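Here we describe the complex-level prediction in full. Unlike the single-chain runs in Section 2.1, the two entities below were treated as one system.
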Amino acid sequence: MSDERPTLTRDEVAHLAQLARLAVTDDELDLFAGQLDVILGAVARIGDVAAADIPPTSHAVPLQNVFRADEVRPSLPREDVLAGAPAVEDSRFRVPQILGEEE
Amino acid sequence: MTVRDDVQLDLSYDSVVRRFAPVIGLETHVELGTVSKMFCGCSTEFGAEPNTHTCPVCLGLPGALPVVNAKAIEYTIRIGLALNCSIAEWCRFARKNYFYPDMPKNFQISQYDEPLCVDGHLDVVVEGQTYRVGIERVHMEEDTGKNTHVGGATGRIHGAEYSLVDFNRAGIPLIEIVTKPVEGTGPLAPEVAKAYVTELRDILRSLGVSDVKMEQGSLRCDVNTSLSPIGVSEWGTRTETKNVNSLRSVERAVRSEIIRQAAILDRGGKIKQETRHFQETTGETRSGRSKEEATDYRYFPEPDLVPVAPARDWVAEIRASLPELPAARRTRLKSELGLSTEDLQQMVNAGVVEAVGETVQAGASATEARNWWMGYLAEQANSREVEPTSLPITPAQVARVILLVADGKLSTALARQAVDGVLQTGKDVDAIVAERGLAVVSDTSELTRAADEAIAANPDVADKVRGGKVAAVGALVGAVMKATRGQADAPAVRQILLQQLGVSE
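The structure predicted for the assembly as a whole is:
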């Protein structure tokens, strides 16, 4: 069954790298395409044993409905919040020019 | 496909909708009115100092774990039930991954293929006809931070040198309500879209789950529009218009997008599937980024949150606690107030049905309540460019003014001054009346003295009236009213003037 699985192409790896904002060289594309393909192949073997009567596991712990009450708790002091920011202006995080999208 | 530029086309709205059938869809985002955020205890208060409502969870600091706000789940179920949806027995959150500096985590926790509420509907009435708008889903997510773009002339992202981010809003519970495609509206697509958002807003308000203020962004709307030639059953390519921030804009955005698409199709062109932005000033839409494929977001189940499985008895409890919804209330008010269908529709269009109902409940007559909300208050709202119900006056205060007029303590002119006072100061009606000395002068001797003074000051007019031109007495009435600062009863003044001039009608 795993033989019929489509292989991960070089272009797909390039696309995923772009989405994840990773700079990947041409050589690395070949390398990662091969490596990721092996990983996907290993994971796909689960499909060989999964049957209709086995529900997919969503979580490692069998819990649901973990809620908190709608109550305000103290936030962090602003100086702590901004302390790690590379740039701050007017108590806001200053980020470089954002192009290509509009709010 | 050839694009023709040489053909004269009739792109009036009427002509366009004779040739094309619009299909619309609406995606509405609603900030829930919880006091704390969706996954942490930070306050949701609007307008706080930047970055004062943040913590390790909503800042996405390493090791911080989100926990679901139970009230947000309850509110979402309330919304789902009010929109006739089925409530999922089991659902999950998912991560929506993207790079845009409005979420510190680089992903937004949302729901993807397992929303909490599915498959409902909402009926809206336009021009006497009921349109059933299908509800595809109601899902939960978290709001993003707010970006301010600095530099450049327009304050928009294009031309900006850099941006500043405030994460106070990041993590506020946000609900997305998605309609199914709405067909069969024909030329009324813009009106149906507006009626849907209006009805949705009123429902959300009556459920008490959000303050639904479009101007503050707690209710935001994206509008999908496509056209297909009349007689063609296949839908055209759709565009999504964002930045639609008022009820009026919903209508304008659909209308202008219909005309824009028709102009392209008429010339043999193709519609590009894209996100467009509504321009408040021109009423037109402008191209934004091209639509990303959903798979680009690389959704996957959120590992830090366990599934939500609302117990059926909890859902039943919430259902039992739903308030009377606007449609039911309208039907009730219609019969209680003895309104005609047309009257009711006018009040619905003006957005004052609830206000009139509450004014009547506070003791005013139905006719007067209607007249005030549809008349003077509507004018005031119009000149301030707000909805009548956004005016700083309560139905109880309006009812008090109406009662004072009914008791003869205020004339209509004085009542308007009292209302102006409330709108200006926010004080109570009785405080304004006392403070400004607003009271009808009914003391006949005082009015007679004022009448004599007016006659003495305007001998020419007085002579005309004595000479038989009774209509000229209006000028004298005006003088008396002015002298008494509008506090006299005009018909009474007229009687006294005529009496002093020895003229009978």
